[in-house]
């Protein structure tokens, strides 16, 4: 391992819209929960508050996970890949991660050419 270096969000590679993809993964189980986007300010807010904050492309505004639903993502670890163009946030997830009220957004599988729903919405 090398010496620590101060993190600078501008060292990441953002797309032409100033966004970077983020995968949220459950820190305990390793389950992949969702994919969303962050900009520099969302990264800064996430690191400052410990509450995962995304950038909503449809609303063009910050989206603090769980702010309205109560399905909070508490940041446990913040990582980026070797190309610095994708983020991984390890989180403590409260409730559903998906807006369909499922634990994960990845609840559909393709098996033998058919779509299979792997889980129902949480109650």
Descriptive terms for the model:
123 residues, mainly beta, 4-stranded mixed β-sheet, globular, phosphoribosyl-AMP cyclohydrolase activity, EC 3.5.4.19, PRib_AMP_CycHydrolase_sf, cytoplasm
Total beta-strand segments: 8
CATH-derived architecture of the domain at 18-96: Roll
What is the makeup of the main sheet? 4 strands, mixed
The overall average pLDDT, rounded, is 95
- Outline type: globular
CATH topology of the domain at 18-96: Ubiquitin-like (UB roll)
Sheet/helix structural class = mainly beta
CATH class of the domain at 18-96: Alpha Beta
Through-space gap between termini:
45 Å
Number of helices: 1
Radius of gyration: 15 Å
The amount of beta strand, in percent, is: 35-45%
Outline the low-pLDDT stretches: none
Order of helices and strands: EEHEEEEEE
Strand order of the largest sheet: 2-1-6-5
Percent helix, as a range, is under 10%
Q: Give the name of the CATH superfamily of the domain at 18-96.
A: Phosphoribosyl-AMP cyclohydrolase
Summarize the entry for a quick read.
8% of the residues lie in helices and 37% in strands. The longest helix has 10 residues, at 40-49.
Describe what you observe in this structure.
This protein is mainly beta. It has a domain at 18-96: Ubiquitin-like (UB roll) (Roll), CATH 3.10.20.810. 8% of the residues lie in helices and 37% in strands. It has one helix and eight strands, in the order ββαββββββ. It has one helix at 40-49, and strands at 20-26, 32-38, 53-56, 61-64, 73-80, 87-93, 108-111, 114-117. The protein has a four-stranded mixed β-sheet with strand order 2-1-6-5, with helices on one face. The protein is globular and about 45 Å long. The model has no long low-confidence stretch (mean pLDDT 95).
């Amino acid at each position: 391992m090398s010496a620590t270096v101060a993190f600078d969000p501008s060292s990441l590679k953002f797309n032409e819209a100033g966004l970077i993809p983020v995968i949220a993964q459950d820190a305990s189980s390793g389950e992949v929960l969702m994919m969303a986007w962050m900009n520099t300010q969302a990264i800064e807010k996430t690191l400052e508050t410990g509450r995962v904050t995304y950038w909503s492309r449809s609303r063009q505004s910050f989206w603090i996970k769980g702010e309205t639903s109560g399905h909070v993502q508490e940041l446990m670890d913040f990582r980026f890949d070797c190309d610095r163009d994708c983020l991984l946030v390890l989180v403590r997830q409260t409730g559903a991660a998906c807006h369909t009220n499922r634990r994960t957004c990845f609840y559909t599988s393709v098996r033998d050419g058919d779509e299979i729903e792997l889980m129902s919405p949480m109650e």
